[in-house]
Amino acid sequence: HTVRSPLVCPNKPRMLLRLLPVAMSPVTSGIAPRRFAAAEQVGFLAGSGSASIGRRALINLGAAVLLALPASTSAAEPGEVRAVLESATWDETAPFTREDFRRLDESDDSRFYDDPKLVQHIDDAAVASTTSFYSQLFASLAASGGAPPRPLSVLDLCSSWVSHYPPAGTGPPLGRVEGLGMNAAELAANPVLTGYKVQDLNRSPALPYADASFDAVTCTVSIDYLVRPLEVVAEAARVLRPGGKVAFVFSNRLFFSKAVALWTGKDDLEHVYTVGSYVHYGAGGLLTPPEAVDLTPPSARRRGGGKPQGDPLYAVVATRTTAPPPRSA
Question: Residue 70, SS3?
Answer without folding.
Answer: strand
